[in-house]
Design brief:
Chain lengths: 345, 342
């Protein structure tokens, strides 16, 4: 293999700089009653993309603020209509929800098209070629199946979802590929069970012990219910605090380690404990600063994530050529943002 | 003075070193293999962003990237757009921060309550009634049982309440009787204006005047659409906090929403008390019966059955009580007593 030197994504953004952009964006968005938010989004994305470097060259974002604004207006109308209807009539709300779910695959495809089409690296655009039919199966049907089976099938569903998005993405004239086994997704989730049991048993036994020693004032008859209540609450919190970073690290590594762009292979080496540390420090500082640390937190997390993704190129990166260019509208991206359906890993 | 940059033709990912020079309104690019010129008017120059390389888009999809300092050498007179200028100056950023905080605070203190008040007043009665039926159905499933009071007792209370003279001809909402061992002695107003009285409250009262006093307080909530406004405000505050804090922690956003809500509910309690006193006086009744009833409710709230079911230390009860449906009871009793003093 010629020139097998591994390249790492670099992120040169700084918290202080990003804070200023964020503050000006927020202020102008509020003063213009939200209209500027479309321009703010472009500016924010451009800041992040241009400070993301691979092999010394930056990425770029080309989204048109006017298309984003149109998308946002559509999203507000759709979302506002839905929440208004569901406040006053649950049946009509349910019908509206089903209708929204049915158009969701189409919106998600539009969203991915817009996002990738407007991303470039070294002057070449990315693209998304996924069909709406594929989105219906992989982004709507299978997740519903995953829910109906109480999550038992979820790791398999997630592999299909990631596969659909990655295998239909392209850079220039080359397709991305994704080859991970279902078993690997199950293994990523399997570790959660012993972690949860361990935390629950640890919390319950320590509360029980402290209670029976008199360190915490609990009546003796109430020891078992009190300690199991405290352990359940603590485990629920731990799910968010401990398990989320763990799962995120495992999944991001799994996904990138099996993603390739033709013969250029990606890899990732995030560590759960690093993510845990960054996320908890971020949370602490955001609370302490009443929310103003948020832009710094975002940059810190993004830098860690990006700088643990690598590319092992086959040859050099000069050989890509442009693929077919297509126009993409922003409506899908904005609406799927509003409904919290952003599945693009 | 020529500067060096990187050139991409837009057709391939090939990176080429170029030198750029601006002379007489024409940009000249020289690479090892080629050289060409573009009139400055056909260039599209991206506004500066942090310390990222400056990007010059050329006609036909090609672009050049050059370092920030080199760009300034190349285009010394390039006027900066407004937004990047704001971002580069800390005083402008500080002003943006102050304006943002002021607008958000004003929206929370005045804008949202005003919008909720206007909206709540405009909701058609048919929708309010339907909403209340749904809320009642939910409560019946989880909290309520059918009332155990004798029918004539319920009738007497309803008649006494409906017989009150209301100041601006506003009709009182529908009175609903229920038993709830979990909630104990309580009365509340639904968003659509229906008033629910629980059996334990009727049994707790020493006389009918005390029951009527509590109902006038609830009628105050109904008259000013407090529950509906509360619901609308809660939806907006909840949505905004979820949007801002949600991606950090859902728990945090729930806590923030609850804390932001209590301010509104305390104000509503005071307004409902004022309405009750006016209504009681208009019907030649005393506000003292409301104070007496509040005192009884406060005392029984301390060992409410609902709170007893949760295993937790005493301090938790106090916090729960403080954040519960009727806050600041001591202060309200004092105020009611003060208004009755001759």
């Amino acid at each position: 293999m010629p020139n097998a030197k591994q390249m790492t994504f670099e992120f040169t953004g700084r918290g202080g700089e990003y804070f200023r952009i964020w503050m000006v964006n927020t202020c102008l968005s509020i003063v213009t009653l939200g209209i500027y938010s479309a321009w703010a989004k472009v500016r924010r994305n451009q800041y992040i993309y241009r400070h993301t470097l691979l092999d010394g060259s930056g990425f770029d974002y080309h989204g048109d603020p006017k298309s984003i604004l149109k998308g946002r207006i559509m999203a507000v109308v759709l979302f506002g209509g839905y929440s208004l209807i569901s406040q006053f009539n649950q049946q009509a709300g349910l019908v509206a929800l089903v209708l929204i779910l049915l158009v969701m695959p189409w919106l998600l495809v539009r969203s991915l098209c817009f996002k990738l089409h407007n991303t470039s690296y070294r002057g070449l655009r990315f693209a998304f070629h996924g069909s709406v039919k594929g989105a219906f199966v992989n982004l709507l049907g299978l997740p519903i199946l995953g829910l109906l089976t109480f999550g038992v099938l979820w790791p398999w569903v997630q592999r299909r979802m990631v596969g659909y998005v990655r295998e239909n993405s392209a850079y220039g004239n080359l397709q991305f590929s994704f080859e991970a086994g279902t078993g690997q997704f199950y293994r990523a989730y399997a570790m959660i069970v012993p972690i949860v049991i361990f935390i629950f048993v640890l919390l319950m036994s320590s509360v029980y012990l402290l209670g029976s020693l008199g360190a915490i004032p609990i009546q003796e008859a109430k020891l078992t219910p009190v300690s199991s209540f405290a352990a359940a609450l603590g485990t629920y919190l731990a799910l968010f605090v401990l398990v989320m970073p763990y799962l995120e690290a495992r999944l991001q590594n799994l996904v990138w380690n099996h993603t390739a762009l033709n013969s250029h292979q990606f890899s990732a080496d995030l560590r759960a404990r690093d993510l845990l540390w960054i996320m908890s420090a971020n949370l602490f500082l955001i609370v302490l600063t009443l929310g103003f640390y948020k832009p710094y937190a975002e940059i810190r997390l993004l830098r860690y994530r990006l700088e643990h993704i690598h590319l092992l190129p086959y040859g050099d990166l000069d050989q890509f050529t442009a693929g077919l260019q297509s126009q993409a509208s922003a409506a899908g991206e904005e609406i799927s943002d509003m409904f919290d359906f952003d599945i693009s890993l | 003075m020529p500067v060096t940059g990187v050139y991409f033709d837009g057709q391939s990912s090939k990176r080429q070193s170029v030198t750029l020079e601006l002379a007489q309104g024409v940009l000249k690019l020289n690479s090892d293999s080629a050289q060409f010129s573009v009139p400055a008017g056909e260039l599209k120059i991206a506004p500066p962003l942090g310390r990222a390389a400056r990007v010059i888009y050329l006609p036909g999809g090609a672009h050049c990237e050059i370092a920030q300092e080199d760009f300034e050498t190349l285009f010394p007179d390039q006027a900066k757009a407004l937004v990047p200028l704001l971002e580069q100056h800390w005083p402008a950023v500080a002003a943006a921060l102050v304006i943002t905080l002021a607008v958000v605070a004003a929206a929370y203190v005045w804008g949202l309550p005003y919008a909720a008040e206007v909206t709540a007043g405009k909701i058609p009665p048919a929708i309010s009634a339907r909403l209340d039926r749904q809320v009642l159905a939910n409560f019946d499933e989880v909290w309520f049982e059918p009332s155990q009071l004798p029918a004539d007792r319920r009738q007497a209370i309803s008649q006494a309440f409906n017989g009150l003279v209301f100041p601006d001809a506003g009709k009182p909402g529908e009175l609903i009787f229920r038993l709830s061992p979990k909630l104990g002695a309580n009365a509340f107003t639904f968003p659509g204006g229906s008033i629910v009285v629980l059996d334990d409250l009727v049994n707790l009262a020493d006389n009918d005047q005390e029951i009527i006093a509590v109902l006038t307080h609830e009628a105050g909530h109904a008259h000013d659409h407090h529950a509906m406004r509360q619901m609308l405000q809660a939806s907006v505050v909840g949505m905004v906090t979820l949007w801002y804090v949600g991606d950090i922690s859902h728990l945090l956003s729930v806590i923030t929403t609850v804390l932001l809500q209590t301010r509104y509910s305390r104000e509503f309690e005071r307004n409902a008390d004022a309405f009750a006193v006016t209504l009681l006086h208009a019907n030649h009744l005393s506000g003292l019966s409301l104070a007496g009833m509040l005192e009884k409710l406060q005392n029984q709230g301390k060992d409410s059955k609902l709170l007893k079911q949760l295993p937790a230390p005493d301090s938790v009860y106090k916090v729960l009580n403080y954040l519960s449906t009727h806050p600041d009871t001591d202060e309200r009793i004092k105020m009611l007593r003060a208004t009755e003093r001759p």
